[in-house]
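Crash report, auto-generated. Payload:
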Amino acid sequence: MALLEVKDLKVYYKTLRGCVKAVDSVSLNIEKGRALGIAGESGCGKTSMAMAILRLLPVNGKVYGGLVMLDGVDILSMDDEEFRESVRWKRISMISQGAMNALNPVHTVGEQIIEAILTHEDVTRSEAVRRGNDLLEMVGIHPGRSKDYPHEFSGGMKQRIVIAMALSCNPDIVIADEPTTALDVMVQSQILKAIGDLRNALDLSLMLITHDLSIIAQTCDDIAVMYGGKIIEYGSVVNVYGNPKHPYSIGLLKSFPNIKAEKAPIISMPGSPPDLLSPPAGCKFHPRCPLAKGICLEKEPELAKVHPDNHRVACHNTDMLKKGTDIWNQ
Amino acid sequence: MESIEIIGGRGTIGCKKVILEVENLTKHFPLRRGIKGKLASNSTSTVKAVDGVSFSIMKGEFFGVVGESGCGKTTMGRTILRLLEPTKGKIVFKNTDLIALNTGQLKKIRTKMQIIYQDPYESMNPRLDVYRIISEPLRVQRIVKNLHDAFPYIKEVLEDVNMVPPEKYMTRYPYELSGGERQRVAIARALVLKPDFIVADEPVSMLDVSTRGGILNLMLKLSRERGVAFLYITHDLATARHVCHRIAVMYLGKIVEKGPTDDLVKHPLHPYTKALIEAVLVPDPKKRGFGEVLKGEIPSPIYPPSGCRLHPRCPIARDICKEVEPKLMPVDNNRMVACYFA
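Recovered output after restart:
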């Protein structure tokens, strides 16, 4: 049984202009100790999905169906107080987007870590202080700096502190939402390395949300590519990167320049991601897809298995995609 | 004047005329301090954002400036256009010394040099439609008398940036456009005056990945077909490698290495360039591993380290690096590096 199982999750936002289906029947699994990368462009629903799992959706967002099982226990039907006490941070914690601003500027960083521990666990203050210092040391920050305020740290160090906070209650799963977006390349490399090392040391499961396919390639075991609120391709990173089956994944992979390989042209897909207030009928990708045909305009494709290794794709044209054919060659 | 063979990946450019020459460009921002600080000492400290940068750009060339945030690349781009006044140095654009120009002369020469900003969400007036946004430079420069006369210019330039049919986009407002379309409008606005030189300051970093390629390829096409020279400012070495003929790497206000793109990326000489290339992640799960990057983060440009500015982070630093600053020296005809041990 998977550690975290998400089944047919639907998250809709009510807005003045109508209902936005931000997450539309998404299913995924994370096993103990594995890392799943969620890839997609802005507005594809990846953050909404994470927020729904942790019940941190804004007031106009609501879960309209589906299941979220943690170790076989349905955590969606729990009442809020129980969820706060026994799941959030203790079992599933989060490294949020723009974590550089996630720290409270008027408290010392040590105090903020201790607060998280004391809120969730029944320990003495001195025990919490000791654990806070251990956590800082683990992410590579001298414990002596726990009495410093956030502005006294650089961006990369603040990010490390936020990671320490996410680990403060020994969670099973960490959801990292664009953990390195605001950081410089060199710091990004340091932080991702730190996350990887911690994951190995603590046998953590990770859900890493990013628009950057190279981060997922370097840190995750599996990948789910999202487009317009749906997962359109799902499988192990080796399968999906080596043999992508959905035209969108193929295009996305070709939009990334690879500095260590021979120079290849960067492609761009025509059009832009769909407006989820009035998404196109049928396959949501059809207006941008070079393979779109009659059925794509009418029927939404199912996420179907294309490879025994549980590589799944939602596309009507998977048969047409023989390995090597260049569908994006304009 | 430098004479440099452009050996970009996109073939040699026939004309090698220098269009922009920057010499020892320096921009220091004075720090404002409280009264206590002023009483304590007489000297004002400054942020040394750009500290003695020299290079030249040829007609039609794509020149990349790469560096981490805070290295002074954006300040440099703006100072070149005299959007910021340089502290010292020389900027010669098409044989005109920009620093000697008065406001009127500067306005006139700005038809030939334009800028594209990083964030297309903030660089446009949300209350103007695309037609008015693009016609504004024409009206400011008195090329057209009224809005109506601007029509043929706008139609042409929208076609140039692949927004067809142009009539469909003219009446739209920025909020009705996607990020990629907005950045195309920003390029059209820069292009409508038919400039010879465009500063592109992180033009794709705010865009969705699937639309980045389109903007980069559009700029490449403009440089190839029209001979527009670009100063491409970015933190992303991977896209710089894709579009640039030559790249200069900046660290704390100084150029540490400069050379033809392929050469520089395949055989970096400066330890900073090496680390920067190592830090770029590869979108390939079969080639895993985080390369050796430098420890720590970029120091404050108010008190840059003595000697070579990289020495506290440099894996090969020796005693001399702490004391004497290395100069940018030619390695061969095309490449220059500022390091004693490169």
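Post-recovery validation: The longest strand of chain B covers residues 18-30.
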